[in-house]
Amino acid sequence: MCVELLLALRTNCPPEYLVSIDLSMRVDRRNEPRPDVVAIRREHANRSPVPVEDALLAVEVVFPTSTFRDMYDKAKVYAHAGIRSYWVVDPLQERVTLTEYALGVTREYEQVAHTEDLFVTERPWKVSVDLPALTARRDALLAPDGE
User: What digits encode the pLDDT tens for the residues 90-128?
Assistant: First the structure.
């Protein structure tokens, strides 16, 4: 699923930015989260960890063992660090869902969109994610052989 999100984000990615999977970001001495997918400024792409100030978008894909961490803990860290956009993709539901959050004036995330259909946004640039296609792909991968 992360690869499909990476490809969707790369489609209209401006040249001064980079989309990556599983890249460490330095928030402070105690926090170095690794979003499943992240959009960053290209200028520090050769550093590890990348300064969190370079991130425009963090994407987390929910897994059974990380639901609370992805939905709440990481969201607080990302918001406090000033990452403008945060997506949570949930493949654990009957249909894959995507929730988009934007950083509010109180430095907390505000929900902008939640869908299980075609997701289209302008943040951080024009992106569309075909969630029904992701659901069909997931279902096909999980189907017993011969179904």
Answer: 999 999 999 999 999 999 999 999 999 999 999 999 999
Beta carbons within 8 Å of 70's beta carbon, 6+ residues apart: 60, 61, 62, 63, 88
| DSSP-derived secondary structure letter, 146 | T
Helix H or strand E encompassing 55 = strand 55-61
- Torsions phi, psi of 34, nearest 5? -125, 90
CB atoms inside a 10 Å sphere around CB 17: 19
Q: What is the pLDDT of residues 24-35, one digit of tens each?
A: 999 888 888 899
**Cα distances (Å, whole numbers) of residue 41 to 61, 78, 91, 124:** 22, 16, 28, 11
pTM over 0.85: yes
Query: Rounded to the nearest 5 degrees, what angle is found at the Cα of 103, between the Cα atoms of 39 and 81?
Result: 65
